[in-house]
Amino acid sequence: QVQLVESGGGLVQPGGSLRLSCAASGDIFSINDMGWYRQAPGKQRELVATTTKIGTINYADSAQGRFLISRDNARKTVVLQMDSLRPEDTAVYYCYAEVRGVATMYRDYWGQGTQVTVSS
User: Is residue 104 a contact partner of residue 40, using CB atoms and an 8 Å limit?
Assistant: First the structure.
């Protein structure tokens, strides 16, 4: 089994910043994609940003220019630095990883989610 543990959510005013961190542990032989999704009330879960193990990054249009994703393959961590936050960024943010175990094929794992609220 694999665990993804997130930290760093909270309440911030519009224009502020937050930093989300996620650490993967457990039966991990290799991690392919790793990143962040979010889900606002009444909406579907959507991509925020992901990065492959060779560093190819994909941002949602809404995150481009404001958010920065980084990854440490050795530590099995991924960080999302969010700047210039807007009320529409309010959502539960989920860490995601595509993980291959020692004796298993790649499968998707999700963290428990961390709440980000942008409000004055």
Answer: no
What local confidence, expressed as pLDDT, does residue 67 receive? 98
Closest listed residue to residue 51, CA positions, set 84, 1, 98, 89: 98
Q: With cut-offs at 50, 70 and 90, classify the pLDDT of residue 84.
A: very high
Phi, psi of 89, deg, nearest 5:
-80, -5
- Tokens representing 47? 């991509």
Q: Which long-range contacts (CB under 8 A, 24 or more apart) does 86-91 make?
A: 86/14, 86/118, 87/14, 87/118, 87/119, 88/40, 88/62, 88/118, 89/38, 89/62, 89/116, 89/118, 90/40, 90/116, 90/117, 90/118, 90/119, 91/38, 91/39, 91/40, 91/43, 91/116
Token pair for residue 7? Answer: 């930290």
How high is the mean pLDDT of the chain? Answer: 97
Q: Tell me, what's the pLDDT at 11?
A: 97
